[in-house]
Each structure stands twice: as structure tokens, then as C-alpha cells.
Structures
1.
Amino acid sequence: MFRTMLEKPNTRTYPYQKVDLPLRFRGKLDIDPDKCTGCQVCSMVCPAGVITMVDLGTRKVGDRELPVKRPLFDLASCIFCGECVDNCAFKALEMTKQFELATPHKEDLIMKKATVR
Amino acid sequence: MVRRTIATVRYQILQTKEDVELLLQIFEALVFPGVLFTIGVGFLFDWLDRKTAARMQGRIGPKIAGPSGILQPFADFLKLLFKEEIIPSHADRTIFLFAPALFLLAPLLSMLFIPILALSPIASFDYDILAILFLLAYAAFVVSVLSYSSASSFTTIATGRLVLQYVSYEIPLVLAIITAVLYTRSLSVEGIVAAQSKLWNIFVMPFAFAVYIIALMAELEKPPFDIPSAKTEIVAGWLTEFSGRALAFLKLTKEVSYVFGSALAVSLFLGGPLGPEFSGVPIWILYFSYFMVKLLAVGFLIFVLKTSMARIKIGQATELFWKILTPVSLGQIILILVLIQGGILVVS
Amino acid sequence: MSETTKKVESAGLMKYSTENLVPFGPIHPALKEPEYFKLVLEGEKIVEVIPRIGYVHRGLEKAAEMRPWVQNMYMFERTCGICSFVHSLCYGQAVEELTIYEVPRRAKYIRLIVAELERIHSHLLWVGLMGHWAGFETLFMWVWRDREIVLDIVEAISGNRIHKSMNAFCGVRRDMPENMEEQIVEKMKYLADRTRYYREIIDTEETMLERTEKIGKVSADTAEKLCAVGPMARYVGIQHDVRLNDPYAAYDEVPFSIVTRNEGDVHGLLRLRLDELIVSTELVTYAVKHLPEGQIRVKIPPIIPAGEHSSHCEAPRGEIFYYVKSTGGRTPDRVKSRQPTMANLPTALEMLKGLTIADVPIVLTAIDPCFGCMDRMSFLDTETNRHWTWSGEQLRQYGIKYYKQRRT
């Protein structure tokens, strides 16, 4: 017991001391809008209903008019499971190391990056 | 004209030497080393307690209030003073609000009998050990009344445990104190301290010291004896219903009794403020430093014991006190008397 | 459970005067999760304990019927924080049996590693809690400091400390990180040494012994009759361990021994769980060293063929049992999960008879309760103080009647 007194204490004085996170840490979602094609798989697999597809117009493919959709993320409901990341065939989504997401305004947590043209 | 009056008054007050003495005495009693000093040391002990316990457990302890968290107990006290007081509807209002102050009186008054700066304490007379014993019993009585006054289902259980524990620890504690009295043939703290100028009492009666420390831990409700305020079993025990100022005073009383208990141990067994004298250093500084060192040593002993043990049940605690500690302290008294009679121990 | 309910209905709570009834919970510092226990006392001795559950019921089984199969995996993972991986594992196994796909061998080993890591963290948490309720704060702090080591390993593997989200149907979602082998082996060895030290502490520390010895004695027959599972069965000597009796996820390939004790008191439970911890560290070391190569996941289509299947696993608390019924759609038709605390609760109430209030937190924590997992709905009529439960069919009839009344 006296030995423990002389050792360094185990507490990390967060927030004065930064915590080092492992590689696979599942933090806030981030999307690369250039890689996203609007295939909607992420919104179908999300268990928490975070992703909604937003209509952004249409585009011509051959002689058909196909709708163009992009995902809108409401990160307040995200459970950080990573299903969307795993299922994205175009590797557009990734989980960053950012975890300090507390904010008094819910609108801050809506990620609109991909829906802005 | 006001200025002239004040000057006259000041001139008249400091006229005689006795007046200066009186002022000094009031200062001693109220500030140092009396009431304010005791409260300050109480906060210091609380901070030391939390810091050493934390370090032994691999944590940090209080950190933010003041350098290294030293102002934390004071901050807790202040915070409690500002909080709202919620009194249960079926509790006795008068006792609830007034008794904590009465409870605080006991250890504070008792501290005045402990010599700190010199051989003779601030208040002393020939039988002050009796006064101290009375104040201990009075404190136990007030605690029982306090605990009973907040009548809820948890506190009733706590009251039962509390009374049982207080009844059990008191006899070994008193017997340990009596051992010191019997050996030094003096019923005043000053006399006992003076009698230890050659040899500290702890070497003569080590068992009494051990019994005293264990009984003290029961009085202060420190683990393994924190049964009446068992945090995880009956919410907060008898402290449950108190909030705001009442709780602030109760916590303060706990800390002050910690200081007083250790101070009494130092005076009775460790020779009080006595120690080797150096010329050139004013005597009261020496006495004060020795006293503080010994006080911190006793306090540290209790911290270590407290951190390394779990809490025992009330049945087992009473067994411990009645079956083991009381006979041991009685045995110590008999041993001392026999040794004195046989001439082996010389009474100084 | 039904035995206790019948007793309550027939005896009626009016038999006991209010002075002797001490309410324990639902909110109490000794309980992590709220459940209401009415302790009937005589002086300080407990004569009977009448439980009332249903405070944290979330309706997960009903919610499961409305979600696709994969989303249910995440939902059941969040039934409990401490045994989250085992929940998703059990559910995953039950559903995998309905498909034609096999789980790859490497995935089975990784599942074993994570499940055993979870067992280590859960037992360490439990030992710390026992110290805390007994008043032994130092043990609590030290054990939880060692638990941080396990949580760091889990975070390095899966990205999250508690809700690991590692399971997928027919496989695991993430592979073991490279170069972690020596680290894991070293840390397991450290944990095993620390656990032996803690075992020494609880064996020799007088105050802990006084709190836990001879408390909570239950005979082996009573435990078996009341369907105790997991450590609650093993501490009276019943050799019941799902990993041994019905191996799943590579337990048949990895050598291990189960631990039983014969003392039948809370101290025996302490020793049992600490020994199990040491066995788990050995399991993890073996599995990490013998990890086979191969893929970690087989992707399966989102529609599960019709059928019904059940699966059980050894959670840190006992036996978890999942029953899954599919009618060939995107969502399950019925999922039922039975958690070990549900099975252990009657045994706990038996243990409490004849003890004092000071022992209640110790005993209730000794069964390692996870009321959040186990909760069910129960009905209480506050006027007549009648307490009953309904079957699913009765609930459905009541619902139909209620909505019919509302419509008219």
C-alpha cells in the first residue's frame, strides 16, 4: 500500500491532460463528399436512423432522369457502431478520433457536408 | 472628535499590563491556538486524509481548490453553508437546527485544555481530565439525540447502530485515559504532560495507546467502524437527513473531533509539546513544532489504518469492544499498578 | 419467480405491519440498477424478501420485432454494458443457425478472445464492487485500476471500451490488430499475478473475511431447484458451465478447466470469480498464440430463412439464452432473451433469509446482478396491493380490449 503511494497515480487529469486514443477509436463520423455516390446503403443499414437521404435534383444517364441523393447525418442519434463505414463500397465514410461532441445546440451536430453542392 | 475618543479608548485599554495579557488570552482562545486554529487544523487533517488515501489507492485526490487542493475542505464547508436546508416533516425542528452547534461545542472546548504553545494550556485547572471525559460523554449524547431527531426508516436503524457503537467504544476509551491518569497521579492534562518530561507514556503503556487509537477510530466513525454512517448500506446513516448549514457544522465537528482526539493522544501518550530544547529559539515555537509533528504522526497512523480495512458489522464491532478491548485496557491498568507497586516503574 | 409471486398473492402484504417493512430500493446506493425489494424484518434479521421488478423494462423484445436483423444485433448489444458482447454473440449464434453459412475459424477464435476479455473485465468490476459495498474502498480503487488495462486492450481491438460492436452475422467485424500479440500476453500475465494478489487479500484480510464468510449459504439442492446458473451454481459445487457442456465459438478447441467451489458462501463466490479470472487470462493467452489464419467474416444476405432456433452462451453472470423465430422476412418474428440474473434472483432471495440489513448489499452484489438485462413487466394494483404477471396472450387480449374501449 505504501508502494502505491510512491507510484504515479493512475488518474489522467483530463481535461488538463490530453488522452491518447488507439487507432481504431470510433469517434465522430466524417464523410468525403467527392467519393459519395448516393447509393443509400449507409442509410439502410444504420441501426439508429441517423442518415436520411436528401434529394438534390436529377441527372441524365443515357435517356433517363435519375434522382441524385446525398446523405444527411443527424449525429446526435449516432451510436458510433460503424455499420455505415463498413458497408460503404466507395470508402467515403470514416470515423475520426473526435469525441468531444457536447454542444448546447442540436443543430451543430447535423452534418450537411455531402448535401452541399 | 471621534478620532480623539478612539485614541482615548485605545490608550485607556492598553493602560495596564493585565489588559494586554487579557487581550492576548482572548486572542489565544479565539484564534490561535484556540478555535480558529483548531478549525484550520481540522481542514488540514481532512485534506491530508483525502490526499493520502487517494495516493494509496492510486488516485490523485483533491487538486483544484488552492495549491494541491489544500483549500478543498474549506470550499466544501462554504458550499454547504450556501445550500438550502431541507428538513423532513416529521423531524424535530429545534433539535435539527440547534443541536449541530451544540455538538460542535464539545471538541472545540476540549481543545482549549490541550497544551500546545506551552506547558499550560489556554484553560486549565486541576481536574480537567474530568472535564474532557464529561465533554466526550456529552458529545455522544448529543449525537444520539441528533440522530434520533431525524426520524426516517434509514436513520432509525442508524440510531440503533450509533448508540450501540458509542456505548461500546466509550469504556475502553475512558479506561485508556484513566491508565495515563493513574500512572502520572494527576488529573489535569498539564500534569500528565509535565510528568512525561523524562519518558513518554507510550513506552510505559503501549497497550493503552493501541486501545485508545482503536476506540478513537470508533468515535470518529472511521473505517472499520464507520457503521453508523455506512455510506453504502443505509444511504448516509444518521447524516442522511441533514443538509445545508446543519450538515456543514456536523462535518466540521467531525473534523475538529479528529483533531482533538489526536491531540489528546499526543498529550496523554506522546508527551505533548515536550521535546529537546535548543537555545536561541523561542520556546513556544519549539513546543508548537513538536506538537504539530506528533499530531500529524498520530493522524497519519489513523489514515493508514482507515484505508486498509473494510467495514465490519455492528455485531462484530460490539464483540470486538466488549470482549477484547475492554479486558485489554483493564489488564493494562492492572499491569501498571502492579509494576508501580513492585517498584519497577518509578513515578516521576 | 412465479413461486414468489404466488406466495405474495396468497399471503397478502397485509400480514406484515409497516414497522417491519424496510424498503430497499428502487433507488439505493447499494444497487447499481433499480429494483424494489421489500425486506421484512424482525429486529435486524430478515425474514422474507419480496421483490418487485419492472423498473428498467425497455421492451427490447417487442422493439426487436420491428427492426431488421442486423440492427437488432446492435440493440441487443446495448441490453447491458458489462455483458454486451455476449448478448450480441448469443443472438448472432441463434440467427446464424437459421442460415446455411458457417462461421470461419478465425472469427470463432476472435469471438472467444473478446468474450473472455469481457469476462475478465466483468469479474474485476464485480470484485471492486464487493470491496466497495463492504466499505473497503482501497480494494475497489486498485481492482478498477487493473480493469483499465483490459479496457485499453478492448479499445485497441474494437474501438470502444464497452459496447464493442464486434459481432456480425457469421463472423466478426474487425480483425485483431497486428503486433498486439506480445502486449496482450504480457498484460494477461500481469493481470493473473494481480489477481493472485487480490485472492491473497480477500483470504487474509480480517475485516473482509468477517463480512463475507458464512454469509449467504444455500444448499446445492435448493440452488438446483431454483435454477441457479453460472457462478451461482458453481459456488455450491454444481458443475454447470455452458462452455464445457455445450461448447460454442472455439471453446471445444481451446483447453480450459471450469472452477467450482464447495463452501457455498459469499467468500466462496469471491474465490470462484477470481479463479475464473485466472482461467480466462490463460484462455486469452492460448487463443492469441494459436490464432488461425483465414477470413473473419462471411457476408450473408439481409433476409434470414424461416425457422426457429435457440442458443445459449456463458456470460460472466451465468447462462444467457436467446430464442429466435423467423418467418423469412427482413425482421424477426419473435426474439426472446433470458438473462442469468433472472434465473439467479430466487436463489439470491433464499440467501438473504436470516441475514441482517448490513448483509443485503453484499449478497445482492454477490449474485452479480444486472437488473437492466433481466427486467420484465409486472403489474401492481396499488389499491388492493395485488401483484401479478401476465402471459403474452393475456397481454394481447388486454390490449385489444383497451383499444376497443378507446375507439367506442
2.
Amino acid sequence: MSPLLNIFCLPLLGALAIWWIPRNYRFVIRLVALGSTLGSLISALVLFYRFNLEQTGYQFVTHIPWVASLGIALHFGVDGINLPLMLMGAIVTFAAVCVSRIIKEREKEYYLLLLLMSGGILGAFASLDLFFLYFFHELALVPTFIMIGVWGRGERRNYATFQITLYLSLGALIALAGLVLLYLHSGAKTFDLTAITRQLQEQPLPTNLQHLIFPLLLFGFGILVSLWPFHSWAPLGYGSAPPAAAMMHAGVIKKFGLYGLIRVALPLLPQAAWSWVDILSVLCLGNILFCGWVAMRQRDLNLLIGNSSVAHMGFCFLGLASLSVAGITGCVMVMVAHGLLAALTFGLSGYLNQQTQTLELKDLGGLWQKMPYVGAVLMMAMFAGCGLPGFANFPGELLVMFGAWKMLPMMVVLAAWGALVIAAIYMLRAVREVLHGTLPSKWTQVQDVQGWWPKVPFTLLLVALLVFGFYPPLLTRPIEPAVTALVRQAGYDVPSPAKSKQRTAPVAPVIRR
Amino acid sequence: MNLSLLSLEILVVLLGLCLMVLDWFTPAEHKRRLGLVGAAALLGIFILSFVLDASSTQHAFGHSYVMDNLALFFKRFFLLAGAVVLLWAIEFTERLRGGAVEFFALIIFALAGMMFTASANNLAMLFVSIELVTITFYILAGFQRQAQQSLESGVKYLIMGGLASAFMVFGIALVFGMTGTMEYEILAIKMLNKNGPATQPLFQLGMLLILAGLGFKIAAVPFHIWVPDVYQGAPTPVTAFLAAGSKAAGIVLLLRLFLNVTPISILKWETLVIVLAGITILYGNLCAIPQRNLKRMLGYSSIAHAGYLLMGVATLSVAGVTATLYYLSGYLFTVLAAFGVISLVMRETGAEDIALLGGLGRRSPFLAAILTLAMVSLAGVPPLAGFFGKFLLIKAVLQQGANAGAYYVLAGVAIIGVIISLWYYFGVIKAMYWGDDAPDMGPVEVSVFTKWGLVVCAAGMLILGLMPEVPLALAEQGALVLRLLY
């Protein structure tokens, strides 16, 4: 099998294997889960290494017909856009399985669901078929529901499970309606993304249809990414979820909506995109400023991280709204960086919660004395969240701002303010409340992460953040050609007639390779 | 006349009669085995049905009985449903006071009635076959004589069913009066006439009354009043058969009559059917939310599913009817699995409160997993049958949106319905895995055959969700029999 298929098939096969293992073989179950996700991570690295940067278009393509009469096929492939996302997803998946050692009850169901969830979302990122894009993403829905319900924390757990399930299904179904309309009207008689793209480039959809489908995709996928004002499911859901589920969700699954917009909405519906970006750019400020402000006022560490993760999505939307090469490239980079960052912070908060049984900021404090390793990693994660240079978030956010400057200067000013000031306030506040100050006497029994093995997931995520931060070409080199092709094919590099008055300099910014 | 066309029905009726005769010679403690024999025989007839070829339409009894791909599709559907329901019924006999074999035989007779509905090609045949189903169900619903609920359910079904039958007969009489025929084929030709019967108010009224009668069978709003009480009170296998079989019988009659003979497009009822479908979806889903009784909740959910099925009918397209047939097949496995598990779990308690499922995830992981699959499939989440069915339906409805904007509204209502339904379906999952534990009753005993029945249902749900190619082709063959507009 090609490494691409291995990435998502291994976790799914792992889930199938766990189904047959008796429930008292706990060690074997965990070993299968670790083995399959490690295999998936190695495949992702192989894929990343073997990816041909010179070649445009999709690589490692697999095409298996599924329902020929409807034009649905298992069609997988990677280009520069989903390649880094799959690598990020595989890293987070492996880390999520690693941190799950704190789960001590009903391991069989737990790992089964976790692997189903990871295999599903990685498959969604690999799919080049609109039907399977949806299908694989929805595989995560039931696992999310059960995982938060059974292994979650907090009094509002039940509320959170239903809220996240209903919101995500609503978003997914609205997007599905948009995808089906695309299928019906593209004239290609297939759900195959490449065929639809080819068809629509020759013969774009009429404007009224574009204006019908684009908002469905924008708000459908937007709900999945917690676009303001449809974001309220995210902080509470993550706050209540067990660490691994929060890592997978905030890190990987949430990026699916953005991926769908980049993959489907932007290239196929350019005319509608031009007129909707104004609204999108206003909404993304809601994410950056409003949710950042909400994050400042949180009393629970998980809710704070959850809100900050919603706020970070605003940058991705700003990058999309810029419709420029730099902006969209930056958006993909922020997706990767934030995926690693969110997984790292939720993993750490899960460890803290296991040690202290609470994440109330007022109860914590002074923990750096007892946990130097966790303290250091958390501190660096928080810096990454503020967009400090050296972490992967910085180049991404910078590119987004460069990309958006020409078209949306006002938004960029506000966003930069939100990113630098608001993020710094809540991140530093979290550091102060959790790590600094005097150590309350009740936490004297708290232990740092012991041994090298339990440190692996955190170190892995942190190293990935630093590597991409210090050497961003690792990301831009594959992403940029793919995004350039997208922007050119959709005609975003030529000013639209309606926008030419506002856009004085229509030349797309060039990224130095 | 070609009697061999009726071979499946003849075999089924003979099977029912054989069981009743064998009943005399079977000692009381072995009577349950007769149920197994019946289930195995039905499975055999199901396999036999694949030998039949119905690619060309054939008729019997003049033109009142038709054998084509649509009929064959539904006959297979009913046979499979009947076989599984018999398995559930065997498990249930210990709660009956005697009459176990009559219980089996009645289920088989109802099955025969359903198989006749699949071939009904004449208004008289329509009425006779549907009465065969309904009258058997009057007895079946009240079969648990010692339980007041069951008796109540039987009586309610009798009264409401009698009313619906009366409507239908009156409607048929009006139609006959206006056109002078009950033959579908002649009626269809008359309908094509420009100033034909479709323009006459009395004919329209007659068709409306027939629609009411069929709406009763499929449990569409506003003919749904009987559903919650009857579903709750009837013995669980009977409820399962009502949900899967009786609803499908209504659908096949509806498809043949309202898409082929007196097409909705000629009656100018497009809006009416769209509105019926939309209201049925919303009503069923909204009313299911506050239910605490599991069978009652599934009753309301079955109303909602009738709405989804009507959605496919409302499209008047091959894609829509294919979707309806596919959805129905998925629904068959799903409700049978759900009621199978309910029947087992509720055996000890006698009540059917959702809270009593508490801790089932620990007590019987197998049953909990099957019920979870069923709920997820009913809700329409991948990778199960319910998802692919809903996907096909929504696709078909959106396809018609290009012709009339109302279809977009219907698709929106369907999506809202799915979201609402997630609430109560997932509530069941919640109760099983992290709800408050029910007063402990230990693991639930499952006999080997029931276990296999449940596995078959789960496999059906997964196959229809993961490998839809072949069943989709079968459904499409069935849909292509009808003279559809799009």
C-alpha cells in the first residue's frame, strides 16, 4: 500500500483489531493502538520525505470505484495543501494515544473509538472525493460523543456532549447540502473533486448557483471550525473532553472545515467567494477579538485554552478572506502550527488535571517548583500561542497578515492587535496563575512527568512546533506552489471587476523560496 | 393465468398452515422449535426468491396481480423481515399465555398479506391485501392477553384501523364511481385524458381518501394518531413487524398507485405531498424528544421516518424512489435490531423506560453495541445504512430543487429533522454508556439464534452503509418499473 493509505488505514485496522481483543488484555490493546498510530506517523514522515516538490497536482493517487452509478470512488491523493496537514494529524494522533495512559477504565472501547476517530479524520484529509470527504469526517462524530460522555470531566459534561454533537452535525449536514448541489450542477456527474474542478474551470457555475452554494459551504464548514458566532460548542466541548479527544478535536478535526473551504469552496466558486469575503473578514474578527476577550476572562485552564483555540481560527479565516497566495499559504501554516499547539496544550492540561484533579486557575499556582518539565513545556506552548518568533505559529500568522494587508488593511491592524496584545494577556495570565506564585500546600504531592516515555508526546509536539518555526520552508515549499495554482486557476490574482476600485495593487505577494 | 407467479405467496401461506397443523402434534415444551422451523423456512423462501426473474412484467388474475422488479424487491424485503421477526417472536413466547404457534402463524399470514400488497395492481386487490395485513395485526397487537397495555393497543389499532379502512373503501368507491374501473392499467390510461377524472372534485376526494388510508399504514401525519400507543403496547416483535413490514406495505401501494397509475403530477398534488413529508418529519422528531418509554419514542421516530420515505415519493423521480427503497431496506435492519435488543433487555423489567438501559454498556457490551449501531443508523451517521439512505434522499430532493424551490425547503426541513433526532437517539446511547445504572439485573441472556439474528441485522446495516453498489442496483431496478416523470 502507498504510504498515504497507510496513514489512515493503520488506525482503522488497529480499531478493527482491538474489536477482537478480549477486554482484559489491556496491555495488548494499548500496544496495538500505539503500534498502529506509530506506523501511521512513520508513513506520514515517509510521505513527507518522498513528496516531489517539483511536481504539481496530486501525488500518491489511489482510485478505487465504490458506487459507479453515482460517480463515487475511494479517491485519495496529496498535494502541497493536505501533505503538511496529514503529517500534523499523524503526529497529533500518536501523541494522543501516548497521553492516554491516564485512562484506566474501559480501555477497549476507549482505544477503539480513538483510533476510529483518528483514522476517520486522516482519511478525510486524504480524500479527493466529495462524498468521502464528508463520510470520513463524520466517522469522528459518534466517537466524540461517547468519549466526552464516558471519559470526560466536569459537571456540564452531558450538556457539552450534546452541544458538540448537534453543532458538528448541523455544520456537516449544511456543508453536505452544498457538496451535493455542487455534484448535481457541476455537470461532471461524479463526486470526484479533480473531475469537478476540471469541469468547472471550463464552464463555471452560473452566478446565482454560486451564491446559493457558497454560503452553504462557508457556514457549514465554518461551524465545524467554530467560526464566530457559531463557536460556542468548542470551548466547552474541549474543556469537558478527555485529553486525547480534545487534542484530536482541537488539533486535527477542527481543521477539516478550513480544509474543505480551501479545497472545495475557494477553487470552485470564485465569483461567490469574491462577494462573501467581506462578511468572512468581519466574522473572523469576531473570532480573534471577541473570543480572545472571552479567553481573558476564563477561570478554568481548559476553557481558556479552548477559547484561545477558537480565537486562533480567526487568523485562518483572515488568511482565506485575503484570497491571496500569501494569505492562504499562511492559513495552512497556522492550521498546522495550531494543530500541534492545541494538542500540546490540551495534553499538558490533561496531565495537570490528572495530578491536581482541578483546572480552576485560582486553585492552581506555583506548580513550576514541583513540575519543571511540564512548566517549561507549558511556558513555551503559551509563547507559541502569543505568536513568538521561533515557533511555527509566527511565520503562519505573519504570512496571513502580509497576505491580507493589501485587501483588508483595517482588519489586519485589528487582528494584529488582537493577536499580540489580547493573546499575550491571557496566555501570560495562565502562566502566572498556573506556574508562578506560592505553591498551595495541597499540591505538595504533585509529581512531574517521570521517565522518558511519558515525556515523548509533549516533546514530540514541541519539537515539531520548533522545527517548523525555525525552518518554515519545510512548510511553505510544498504549500506555496499548490496555493499558487489554486489562486491562479480561480483567478484570484486578477482583480475582480467589482473589487478593482478597492484593490489598488492586485499583484499577489511573492514568497521567497 | 400463470400460478407460478404466486409461488412465493403460496409457499408462505402453506408454511403458515403447516405450522398450525404441526401444532397439534407437538408437545408444549417443543412448540418454540416450530418458530425456528418457520424462520428457517422463510429464509429458504427468501433465497428461493433470487431464482425468480421478474425483469419483464407479468400478470396473473387478469391484470390484478403483477410481478415485476418492484414487487420482487418488496417480497424479498418482507421475507427477510418476517424471518427475523419470527426469531424475535420465539424469544417472546415465554411472555405469552399459550398460543405460541398461533402467534407464529399469524405473523406468517401478515407476511403473506404484505407480499400480496407488493403485487397489487387493482384497487380491490389493494384493499384485500392491506386488510389481510391489518386484520392480522389487530390480533397480534393484542396477543399478550394478560397485559392491559397490549389489549389497549389492540383495541386502539382496531378502532383507528377500522376508520382508515372505511375511508379507503369510500375512496375506492368514489374512484370507481367516477371512472367505472378498478383496474390500474385502465385507470392509468383514463388519467392521461386531458379532461379526464383528475379534474373532477369527486375523483380528487376519492384519491384523497385512499391517500388517508395509506397514510395510516405508513404512519404519516395527520394519520399517525395510533402509532405511539400501539407501538408501546403491542408485543415487541409485533411492533418491530409493524415498523418494518406494515410501513413498507403502505409504501409499495403508495408508490404504485400515486406514481404509476394516478400520478401525483396529474393530480397536481406535488405541494401536498411535500407539505405532508415536511410536517411528518418535524412532528415525529419533535414529539420523540420528551418520550421516556423506548418503544413509544421509536414509535414517534417511525413517524419521522415515514416523512423521510415520503420525501423520496415527493420527488417523483427515479432517484427519489430509488432512495426511498434504499432507505426502507436500511430501516428494516435498523428497527429490527433495535426492537430485538429492546425485547431482550426489557424481558426482566417488563417496563420499557430508557433509564432502564443504564449500565447496559457494562452488563452486555454486545447488546449495547448493537443498539448503538441501530441508533446511529436511525440518526443517519456514517458508516451505517441510515446515512447512505438519507444521503440519497437529500440528493434526490436537492436535484428537484432546480424545478421548484419548495424542494429546497423540504431538504432544509430534513436536515433540521436529522439534527433534532440526534438528540433523542444519542440520548439512548448516553443512557447505555454513562447513564445512571439501572437496579442491577446482571448480564442479559441471549440465545444463539437471537444472537445470529442480531448479527445479521448489524451486518445488514454495515453492508448497506459500506457496500451500497449491489443493493442500490436492486433498488434502482425496482424504481425503474414505475413510469416516473424525471
